[in-house]
Amino acid sequence: MYATSARQIECVRLLLEHKADVNARSKWGRTALNFSNGSFSMSYLERDQTACTLLLLEAGADVNAADNDGNTAGSALYAHPEASMKV
Length: 87
Known about the structure:
The protein contains six helices and no strands. By secondary structure, it is mostly helical. It is 45% helix and 0% strand. The chain has a single domain, classed as Serine Threonine Protein Phosphatase 5, Tetratricopeptide repeat (Alpha Horseshoe). The chain has helices at 2-5, 9-17, 32-36, 46-58, 73-76, 81-84.
C-alpha cells in the first residue's frame, strides 16, 4: 500500500509479479487501490498515479471493496477518466 501511495510504479510492478495480494487491507480497511487513485492521498505526479491505478486494476483489484467507513476505490476512479475507461 505504501508503494502505491508513494507512486513507486516499479515497486508496485515487482510486488505484483511476486503475487502480492492486490486486495490486502490496511487496519482502516483500505486497499492499495484506495491509496493509488488519490482518494486518500495527495497526488503530485498524475501520470504515476494513473500508472499505479492501472497496474492494480489489471492485477484484479476490487474497485467495489469498501473501507471501514464505507468508501470504495471505484467511486474515486471517476476523478481519473483515463483509468476508469480501462475498468
